[in-house]
Amino acid sequence: MSTAVTKGQAPYYFVPGPSRHPMMAAVGLFFVVLGAGQWVNGVEWAPYCVLAGFIWWAVVLKQWFSDAISESERGLYGDRIDLSFRWSMAWFIFSEVMFFGSFFGALYWARLHVLPNLGSIDNALLWPDFKAVWPSEMAGMTASPAGTVEPFRTMGPWPIPTINTALLLTSGVTLTIAHHALRENLRGKCIGFMWLTVLLGATFISLQAFEYYEAYHHLNLKLSSGIYGSTFFMLTGFHGMHVFVGMLMLLFITLRLMKGHFTADKHFGFEGAAWYWHFVDVVWLGLYMVVYWT
User: Fold this and answer.
1) What is residue 263's three-state secondary structure?
2) With CB atoms counted within 10 Å of each terminal CB, which end of the chain scores lower, N or C?
3) Which of 227, 245, 97, 247 is nearest to 167 (CA)?
4) Do domains 1-77 and 79-293 have the same CATH topology?
């Protein structure tokens, strides 16, 4: 049962009562995984199972977050809970660093170790026509001398990736301005810059979708385009997904600001979303330099 609370005073450490939300969220994820597993095997009902699972999961999260927001607005979250949230968000972002680190590591290993090794004298008898060149823009230039990888062109840094870089860097500035405005209790200014940040994030996603269209239809660059194609789409695709999630976080924070939530002194919900967004910005800078320029 929840901690007893003196009116107007937050508990030392709030302990919520029993909740159905974890179990219900697990049910939704079960149907997502079940449907995804059957989808790759060509089962007709699988896409509908995935969709139903996501809808179920989203409804549960909405209810779960609504309960947490209600508890926060009732003043149940004291300093100990605030510290818990900060540590939780820090460890979550650390896990995201490791997540992207694995993909950057795969790109590094393929380019600086695997490719030179395959093109060495030791493998000359096995693949005499192999050319250890990066990026691999035609069949036979990577570990596919038999021509199983279709010819393609690589994605350069101009214009869309560079424009997207400017958009994300600008969004980091507008978010910082909004944060300082909130700390100074300038709610109107804060909300205005938050909407601008959300708009910049949405524009980034739209331009990346157009970039993918160009890649598939004009460059013949696909996920199956050798190690270059797989690392390109894994890195940029997962980053785009994180931008989308971050944009949703900032959108919901903005809507809460418009409802009068958060104060100049207590607004970790805002800060946590800002941490995540700045992390996404930093990852993009590394991705922009490594994937598009080198």
Assistant:
1) coil
2) N
3) 247
4) no
* Domain extents in the chain: 1-77, 79-293
pLDDT in tens, 164-173: 999 999 999 9
- Using an 8 Å Cβ cutoff, are 145 and 124 in contact? no
In this structure, which amino acid lies at residue 11? P
Mean per-residue pLDDT for 154-158? Answer: 90
CB atoms within 10 A of CB 221: 23
240, two tokens: 């785009």
Q: Is residue 15 classed exposed, middle or buried when 0-12, 13-18 and 19+ CB atoms within 10 A define those classes? A: exposed
129, 107, 131: which is closest to 119 by C-alpha? 131
Give pLDDT tens digits for 246-294. Answer: 999 999 999 999 999 999 999 999 999 999 999 999 999 999 999 999 7
Token pair of 160 as six digits? 């869309």
What is the 3-state secondary structure of 140-196? CCCCCCCCCCCCCCCCCCCCHHHHHHHHHHHHHHHHHHHHHHHHCCCHHHHHHHHHH
Distance between CA atoms of residues 196 and 9, nearest Å: 36
Q: Which CATH architecture has domain 1-77?
A: Orthogonal Bundle (1.10)
pLDDT surpasses 50 at 2:
no
Burial class (CB in 10 A: 0-12, 13-18, 19+), 244: middle
Domain 79-293 fold is Four Helix Bundle (Hemerythrin (Met), subunit A) (1.20.120)
Q: What is the 3-state secondary structure (H, E, C) of 59-125?
A: HHHHHHHHHHHHHHHCCCCCHHHHHHHHHHHHHHHHHHHHHHHHHHHHHHHHHHHHHHHHCCHHHCC
Reply yes or no on whether the pLDDT at 3 is more than 80: no
Percent of the chain with pLDDT over 90: 71
